[in-house]
Each structure stands twice: as structure tokens, then as C-alpha cells.
What does this fold into?
Amino acid sequence: MPEGHTVHRVARQFRRDFVGRPLAVSSPQGRFAQGAALLDGRRLTGSRAVGKQLFLDFDGGLVLRVHLGLYGAWDLFGQISPLTEGMAALGSMGAPRLRRAGRMGGGERERAAADGGSGADEPFPPPPVGQGRGRLATDASVADLRGPTACEVLDPESAAAAVARLGLDPATEEDLDAAGAEVARRLTRRAVPIGQLLMDQSVMAGIGNIYRAEMLFRARLDPWTPGRQVPVEVARGLWDDWAVLLADGIRTGVILTREDLDEAGRARALGDRSEQHWVYGRAGLPCRVCGTPVVVEDMAGRKLYRCPACQR
Ligand SMILES: [Zn+2]
It folds into this structure.
């Protein structure tokens, strides 16, 4: 599932290439036809992410709320700006269409030469790929939405209510200290395991399975510890760590959590998924700190990776 950093990057991509322009909005597949008709022809005025949800603001106050869920993604065509200096513009953000091992992290795909937009052979706009839920297009850029969990048009009040239901997100909070105190309170008042509370989008918003496992390892915290047994300063530390990791993920597009790497090691790890994580996806492999095999367990239906020796 796309985690918070990816959705913030999607929001940024819309700010770069779509905000300020009138959009042609349609639903190639038809399931979003009514919503598309409400938005078609309106100017996009803003683009923001909170946690794993994207909110696109249109003239007249209407808001498009999109949650990619496990399988959703945006495919981008035409004039698309690179999000990271020195790297190619992206062709896709979100869940990959096919399972593939590549240098990109968090389900991003660089543009193939064929969808570069400058190629004279390709028609523009391109025909929708597969059964797209929605298409948002300027006269130069196209974003196709496929497979989202949620795609709906809201009035300003409903949009504000949707944001209010979400937990705190360090990339959107203005007062990080106050937000951290609130998060520490929410993490330490319940008996639910801390590993589950980190995934609860009404506590902190944007953390998915990879960030969860990695944050708990970085804190050397047993994921099964009941929240109310976690010291307040440790809970507060989780928020501070999330703020650092999220900012880095938004910048690079990659979930790279290893603080033990020097500059060269970090540069290598950005291009090699097997070097990016402490425990996530490493079941049976030796812990990078103590050598104990990393274990994978089920927690509330999701895989949880941890080192049984370091995280006690
Ligand atoms: Zn260990």
C-alpha cells in the first residue's frame, strides 16, 4: 500500500503541473461519472495530502477526496515535472501495476521513453489504460486514477470533517511540539499493542506497514507492548522519528530508514531495496545489529517484522 510519503508526493505533483489550470475531468470506466461531471471544467485551486488521503480543491469549493488503498495508483502522461532534482519525471505513483523489483521506492515508476510526451508518435491525450476510475487533464498533462478505495466529491464542510477524522501528520501540522504531545497522549492511553496503534490512522496519519516495522525497530520497541505501558517520552519519540522519516521519504520517494549508513552507503541503498530497511521484508535474515534472525508475525491481519532480541 502507498504510505504517507507517496501521497504527499502525489499532492506535490498536482501542485507542480495541475493547480491553477482548468481541468477536464472524466470517468473512463463510468463509476465516477457523476462526480466527474461536477468537477469537469473547473479550475484546480489546491492540492494537499493528509496521511494517506489526497484532497484536491476546485473552484467553487468542491473537493475531490482520493484514497488509493492497497491497489490504487496514478498514471501520469504528457508534461510532468520531475519531483526529485536530477531524476526523471514519474510515470506512475502508487501501487505498481505489476510486481517488479526496481530502483524506485514506494511504488513509483519512472517514465518510459514512450510516455515522454515529446515523442511525436504518441497521441495526446493518450487513450485511458485499462478501466480507469477517473481522468484529470489540463491541455498538457494527464493524471489517470485506477483502483482507488475512495474517490468522491465533497463540499467544504464534509471535506473538513474528513480531515478532522484523520490523525496527526507531521507534514501538515504547524505546531509539531503540540502535535507530538497529543500523539503521545493518544498512544499511551489504550491497551492496544503499540504496533497496531501506529497503523491506526486516527492517531497518526500516513504510517503503513513498512514505516511501522522500521519505526518500532529504530525505537527498539516490542510491537506487542500495550500502548499504555509505553513511556510517554518513548511515544513522543515515535512522533519525532516519524516526522524525520516522512520528510526524508517525501524528498526522495524512497522509504530508507537506516541511520547507520554513511553518505556513500545511503546513495547505494537508495537504489537497492535490500539495503533500505532494518527489519521490513527481512524474515529469516540476520538482524543488522545483533545477528538474530528477523521474525515475521501476524498483527491484526498485516505482516509485522521485528528482531526478537533487539525489540524487547
Ligand atoms: Zn537484533
In short: The mean pLDDT is 93.
